[in-house]
Amino acid sequence: MKTLLFYFTLLVSQLSYAAETEPTDYTFIAGHPSLQQWLLPTPIPTPKDNPLTAEKVSLGKMLFFDPRLSGDNNMSCATCHNPMLGWSDNLTVARGYKSKALTRATPLIINLAYNNLQMWDGRIKTLEEQALAPMEAELEMHADLSQKIALLSGIDGYVTAFDNAFPDQGVNTKTMAMAIASFERTLISNNSRFDTWVKGDKSALTADEISGFKLFVDPVKGNCAVCHSPPNFTDDGFHNIGLASFGHDNPDLGRYNQRRLNLMKGAFKTPTLRDIALSAPFFHDGSAQTLSDVVEHYSEGGKVKTNLSPNFTANTLTPEEIASIVSFLNALTSPHKPFTLPTLPQ
C-alpha cells in the first residue's frame, strides 16, 4: 500500500508540476528584485561529510585528468569532459572503452553541485557515487578499482596528495570519490552576461536578448522556464520531449528504468542551460546540432508525440522569436577562464 501511495503521489506531482512552477511576474529591468531568483546561491552546496578544501580539489583535479584510471590507461574523465569543449566532447554520443560508441551524449558537468540527482536518467544521487560510476562501467572506462587503488598507492606523489587531502584516511575508493567530487563541485558557471544584467548592469544584455528572455519565461510563448527554472535553469526533473529516437525500435526508456511510471518512459533529466552554447550537439541522444534546432523542436511540439511530458506543448514560435531565444541562450555563457592542466604524479 505504501509503495502504491508513493507512485501515485509522484505521478500527481509530475502532472501538476507545470501549474506549480508557472513563472512569477517579472519586471524586465536590470537589477529588479523579481529577477534575483535567477542568481545561483552561494556558497557552493557541499555535503557535511565531504566539506570542500583546496587539498581535495587539487587531488580531484589530478584524478579527473589521469588516464591511468581507465582499463587501458588511455581514457580519463576529461576525455569526455574536456575543459576546452565546454566540459563536454562535442560528439553526438559519447565514446567509451576502446573508443566504442555509447548510446547517450556526454552529459554536462557544469553546476553539478546544484543537482539533486546525477546522470541523464537520475540513477545516481550524489557526486561521490557518480565519480566512480564511469570508471567501473564496463562500456565506459572499464577499470578494476582495486587495481587502480593499488596503482595510486605505489605513486609517492599521489600518496602525499591523499595524505594532505585526507589525513590518516589513506588511498581508497572512498577518498578517491570524495576528491573527484570535490573538484567537480568547483566547475561552476554563475557569471554570464545574464547574471550581470540581473545584478543591475543595464548594458550587459542587448534588446534582442532581453526579448528572448521574455519569450523564455512566457508560459504561452516559449514556456521554457517551466522546466528550465531558476536559478540553475533546470527543474531537476525528467521529461519526455518527443525526440525522434523515442519512436525507434527498443528506444532508450531513460528515467523509466529507475521509476516504473508510464510517464517516465523516454524521460530524461532537464539539463542546466548555463554554458549551453559550448556543448553542442544537444539532447540526450545528440540529435540537435544547433540551439536553433533545439528551440525549433520545442516550437513544433516534438517529433514523436506519444507519452510527452505534460509540461511540453507546441508553441509555434516565429523564426524571429526563435532567433531571440537563441540569442538569450548564448548570453548564459560565463566568461572563459584560463584552465591549467594538472601535473600528474609519476
Automatic annotation (TrEMBL):
Q: Where in the cell is it found?
A: Periplasm
Q: How is the polypeptide modified once translated?
A: Binds 2 heme groups per subunit.
Positions annotated to bind heme c 1: C77, C80, H81
The cofactors it requires, by name, are:
heme
Q: Name one GO molecular function term.
A: heme binding
Pathway it works in: One-carbon metabolism; methylamine degradation
Q: What does this protein do?
A: Involved in methylamine metabolism. Essential for the maturation of the beta subunit of MADH, presumably via a step in the biosynthesis of tryptophan tryptophylquinone (TTQ), the cofactor of MADH.
Protein name as catalogued: Methylamine utilization protein MauG
Instruction: Please name the source species.
Output: Shewanella hanedai (Alteromonas hanedai)
